[in-house]
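lol ok so funny story. i was supposed to be doing the assay writeup but got distracted and ended up predicting the structure for this chain instead. priorities right. anyway since i did it might as well share w the group, maybe its usefull for someone
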Amino acid sequence: MTGPGRPARRFLPPLWVPALLLVVVLPLSGALPAADARSLAELTGPVLGFVVLLTVVAELCAGAGLFDAVADGAARLARGRAVTLWLLVAAVATLCTVVLSLDTTAVLLTPAVVAVARRAGRDPLPLALTVLALANTASLLLPVSNLTNLMAASSFDGGYLGVMVAPAVAVLVVVLATLAVLHAPALRGTFAVPETRRADDPVLLWTAATVVVLMGVGFAAGLPVLPVALGAVVVLGAATAWRRVPLLVPARELVPWRTVVVTAGLFAVVGTWHAHGLTDLLAPLVGTGDDAGALAQVAAVGAASANAVNNLPAYLALAPTVAGDDARLAALLVGVNAGPLVTPWASLATLLWLQQYRRHTFSAPAGLLRRVVLQGVVVAPLAVAAGVLALTARG
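and the output, tada:
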């Protein structure tokens, strides 16, 4: 019972609870037909499995001290200059995103930049926000860079790279320039280079570093991503058990199951809409043609849809409306890859970034989400416009 002047408490279940209900109820009720449910599971199941495996790899690497070692190395290379440290972080974030995927960057690199900022005595948020922006916007170059790319790669008649190199480079250049302006205050000044710390277990540290490098080589070589990531988990898990090194998080927190369930719920909703005419509903929004205006329209709708729901279900919803046209499909990828920076749920990488930032800073600043949104409001339109202009110039 509530007393006078005391507001009644409202019970709101965690977001994963209704999402799980949707995953179960929609197929069982027939709202999502069995054939559509199977097709959706075949397409999205590997995507969610990949995210789970990468998160486990990240936590095992953290326990091995890999992030602290990276932080020490970056601080030494920067030689006390804040701008050099930012450039190093931006370069590593770009490379990690291109070769290992945006989710890998969000999961693996965020703890590292938090560690390096702390070691340098600087605010970790500007560096972490740089990682967040590049994790999304640098994810256009290779199919493995983004899960949407993996789903779209086989649909390009002219080959993925032949179409996507120009917009990928244009987006990256514009985003780096924009971030340099936005975070200019954090690029000034110097810091005392911290002393190098000895790893608690050098054997496990070098094992983790080797596994991550080999995993990246496997991704870049085009090997199936799930077996490569699973192999990394098995090797790191065995090495951690062998060396008897404790994890930094409870075992039950290794798998981001809440994020996976929520994303699966979004997939189920989009799949159900598809079964009931979503493509016909969306077709007028994306228009037709492949001139500059038409491509801008496709990219804008993709970006808006991604920020409204999430970029993965947004791609699934809009892909049928651009089928058979490489330029329009590329514009959609620009929209759903470079555009989902405004809302926290727009990209799975952003959700993973938030999880990692809060976990490794122990107490996220009160204005964290506001800073994420403000950066996205500036970066996303410029990034999408750059990608569309590059597609238009390509002809």
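Residues 280 and 328 are 17 Å apart (CA to CA). The longest helix spans residues 34-64.
back to the writeup now i swear
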